[in-house]
Predict the structure.
Amino acid sequence: MSSPALQALIFDVDGTLADTESAHRAAFNHAFAELGMDWQWDEALYLELLNISGGKERIRHYWMQAHPDIRALDGQAVQDTINQIHELKTAAYEQAVQDGAVALRPGVLKLIEAAFTDGLRLAIATTTSPVNITALLRTAIGPDWRQYFTVVEDASTAPIKKPHPQVYLQTLNRLELPARACLALEDSANGLQAALAASLATIITPNAFTAHHDFKSALRVLPSLRYVNVAHLRAWHAEANAGKALLRA
């Protein structure tokens, strides 16, 4: 049986479409200050916290580390506080995006437009919130950004965070395509692990926060998408499927 041609690209958001993490960190710190908390996430600490996927999960993890007596507190009260922090953080991040603090990474918009014109289907598979996605892409692409993306799966639809493959499995299900007809584009080890667990060949574009991650199982590791075109993607996809065919033989 011949391998299918490339039919879809599945994009992560934070760190892949845009270098968002500095703006996210600033937004977390803004929320802490607004609530009168003495928490301050510097870059080194945030680098460690990025190993935890999901903003609310990241807050809870830090709280457990900084104040292990959290276990003695009322669970609902803790969750309510986490929700409040995250709500303030999301508003601060959205404002930062609107103010121009975040831009798409080099080559991203050009590749999205070229792939769309070439007939490839585009999807988003992310652990971030719908509000964050909309804020970024409405500012970077325009109010009609949804026309490019057939499927959007996010924290609201796939609550089990990467490295679990839930978000990718649901994306493939909604695309009604097999993994071997798609490529995933990611920037982190958690993202790569999630994509591989869904049997997706994956292209990695690391950033300052993920450059130290282990990407040895990626199809390609590139500094950015600046010089990548659809022909490259089709060739790399064919290479990945040829390799899988050899393994099956």
